[in-house]
Amino acid sequence: MSHVEIHPQLLADCYYLGHLPACELLLHRNACVPWFILVPDTALADLLDLPTEHRDAVVAECAAVSAFIKQILGYAKVNFAGLGNVVPQMHLHVIGRSEDDAAWPQPVWGNFLGEQTYASGQVQQWREGLAKMIGLVPLES
Amino acid sequence: MSHVEIHPQLLADCYYLGHLPACELLLHRNACVPWFILVPDTALADLLDLPTEHRDAVVAECAAVSAFIKQILGYAKVNFAGLGNVVPQMHLHVIGRSEDDAAWPQPVWGNFLGEQTYASGQVQQWREGLAKMIGLVPLES
């Protein structure tokens, strides 16, 4: 069951990992950086317009994904953003960054990252790790 | 009195507007977009690493600045980000965007915005508006 109707551009760009209590969790298909996208259940466009309690719950899930990137994937740096200038549906970027990635120190949007695909099984392994660590209800892969 | 030692690059790029309870508030000198920067009092680098209560307080101040951008300055869209790949001190960007700005729909970082300076008195007027609306303790201009 999908909790939120997700914009087709996000579905085209990402793997759909599963559900968190306040957000759907996606993973960008470009494997050059671990680039997670959280889609809250709201018709509002901007994170900072959410009512306080909802906003705090969404940011808490972003923090949980950030902890996965740092503690499990071993990244020291995470970029966090809500932009939505192109895809209007609210979505939050939580991205592991390193000095070795091709876009460093620029942001990932509009800068050359290269293109890599996830190895077979990798996405499913992260789904399972996220289920265990932050309570993701995984979608069938 | 400065509550936080602010990185010299941020001080060079911005007007220092004043203090909020959890953050110092800066305004980028490029007037092409209303580009506010909040600097929390922390030695951590990434917003999503802050303890929950501190994180929620910082994000609440970002939301208050966003409300000023939307309600007073009349922007429909706000971009929000914590990056810190270049300046390591934690700082949050809260930026009014419009389809008329030169970087639209790209993010502002690394994209051509043009260069404009604030008219005399404008920064002080916003300082006073922010004092009234969101409780900014303004620095002397």
Number of helices of chain A: 3
| End-to-end gap of chain A | 14 Å
CATH class of chain A: Alpha Beta
Low-confidence region ranges of chain A: none
Instruction: Give the beta-strand count of chain A.
Output: 6
Q: In sequence order, what are the helices and strands of chain A, one letter per element?
A: HEEEHEEHE
**Average pLDDT reading of chain A:** 96
Number of domains of chain A: 1
> Hey, roughly how much beta strand do the residues of chain A contain?
15-25%
CATH superfamily of chain A: HIT-like
- The gyration radius over C-alpha positions of chain A equals 14 Å
**Oligomerization:** homodimer
Helix content class of chain A:
25-40%
CATH fold node name of chain A: HIT family, subunit A
State the shape of chain A: globular
Largest sheet report of chain A: 6 strands, antiparallel
Class per helix and strand makeup of chain A: alpha+beta
Q: Greatest chain-chain interface?
A: A-B, 34 and 34 residues
Name given to the CATH architecture of chain A: 2-Layer Sandwich
Protein model, in words:
2 copies of one chain form a homodimer. Chain A has 141 residues and is α+β, with helices and mostly antiparallel strands. The first copy, chain A, has one domain: HIT-like (HIT family, subunit A). In chain A, 28% of the residues lie in helices and 23% in strands. Chain A is built from 3 helices and 6 strands; from the N terminus they run H-E-E-E-H-E-E-H-E. Chain A has helices at 8-13, 52-72, 122-134; strands spanning 14-19, 23-28, 35-40, 77-82, 92-97, 137-138. Chain A has a 6-stranded antiparallel β-sheet with strand order 4-5-3-2-1-6. In chain A, helix 2 crosses helix 3. The radius of gyration of chain A is 14 Å and the shape is globular. The two termini of chain A are 14 Å apart. The mean pLDDT of chain A is 96. The interface between A and B is medium-sized, with 34 and 34 residues.
